[in-house]
């Protein structure tokens, strides 16, 4: 790549001047065009035509015929299931990478917040406060399910699941994990320094995803961090809820369609498990007539677990690191496997 006159990079979302400068400073070869849009049709044809690298979201993609020079699509999200139906990501000459690994810190904290909130009966306390009730049996009715001596099962041991395991370590919880390839415990993707579990040694036991039911039987808390693929869609169904402990809590920060929502609602109503903290749903926004809104054992958040004032800086940081590798002809982090879906 050293013989190239320049590298044309097209960014389809807004960057601060500092972020744009970080990209330009990687090499004098770089020509950066920033065109913040919501639809691919808003990008001029000549911008698509000259682009060698596109830094974009999963819903702003060109037609293959529009990008004869394209060699790399860098997505600014980890979950790119929306892009998998597009012809442009299936071309051998075009690499696609995701931003897996950049949102682990904030989602890890969200999960920890969720576990502590339900374990220490915070929703019940808030209800009592609202009703100005000081319960006579507070020590009994608000008895916590402490993380120490509890078993936390992490379903999907990718970058987010590994950060949850790291955060749980000081609390003394037993950590179980399930992943597609249990024979590969190491993290081969992008890892921010000091975060996650790069070597795969922070769990007490690792299960193949086929043995998920066996793992669920042991768990006081179940944390779902799975991406959405053909294999994971509705993975959590009535059969899975049937084997969970009645005292267990479920936290979902993966994708809503990983869970069969009607089956989950029925299981919650029947007391198959104790409660749930849900940040993602089958349909978003969550319909106003969903029973989940009024269930006392459910905490709902509007898909905000990844929110952070540092989010775009971290995404640009990964892009800059991959851009340097691209220029030097090295392997990129987080290359999308379209067969796996992530």
Summarize the structure in words.
It is a single chain. The chain is of the alpha/beta class and 342 residues long. It folds into two domains: 7-102 and 309-328, Rossmann fold (3-Layer(aba) Sandwich); 104-300, Rossmann fold (3-Layer(aba) Sandwich). The protein contains ten helices and twelve strands. The protein has helices at residues 17-24, 45-50, 104-119, 122-130, 138-141, 159-168, 212-216, 238-243, 261-269, 311-328; strands at residues 7-11, 30-34, 53-56, 72-75, 95-97, 151-155, 174-179, 205-208, 221-224, 249-252, 275-278, 298-300. Strands 8-7-6-9-10-11-12 form a seven-stranded parallel β-sheet. The protein has a five-stranded parallel β-sheet with strand order 2-1-3-4-5. α3 crosses α6. It is elongated, with a radius of gyration of 22 Å. The model has no long low-confidence stretch (mean pLDDT 96).
